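Posting this for the archive.
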Amino acid sequence: MTPERREKLLSVLNKRQNDLTIVLENVFDPHNISAVMRTCDAIGIQEIYVLNTRIARHKKWGAKSSSSAAKWLTIHQYTDAQECFTRLRSAYSRILTTHLSSDAVDLYSIDFTGSVALVFGNEHSGVSDEIRAMADGNFIIPQQGIIQSLNISVACAVTLYEAYRQKKNAGHYEQRKIQEPLLGALLNEWGFYGEEKEV
């Protein structure tokens, strides 16, 4: 790895956020998953969780949408919801699901300067009752139209850029959050990859 390449990778790793993650529950379309991955990489999320309790485990993601984002992320795949949530509880203070309900909070009222995991459900039925029961609450993205839903990758992007806004204003991107030995391990892993083409 050239010194220039190392410096570029370190500059990205130094802005990675270890207190924000996305959980995708039974999302069918791999292109939706890969689009979410690209947004996660763009705002500095390192870890995401893919939970498949009702559909087969994904073997690959939609390459066109991800622009190879998957290789820059740490992806945890689970088939057991309890096991997944045990891991989430050990790493994040709050778990919120996207669900239109009477007790749902507005996206813009969430404090993203804390530690939070955000759960997005599948394209047809949203987050399951089982997962909502295990979470700490629900949130919604305010909308003024007749159709009260967004494509999952769009909903995720809207949500994550609000998180980005809050975290940037709070100075979260000015302090390294991923420490050794994980920092070194990721740097070595990334060093094996070739130069990314500009998109």
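Strands lie at 20-25, 47-51, 74-78, 94-98, 105-106, 116-120, 137-140. Residues 3-188 form a domain with the Alpha/beta knot fold (CATH 3.40.1280.10).
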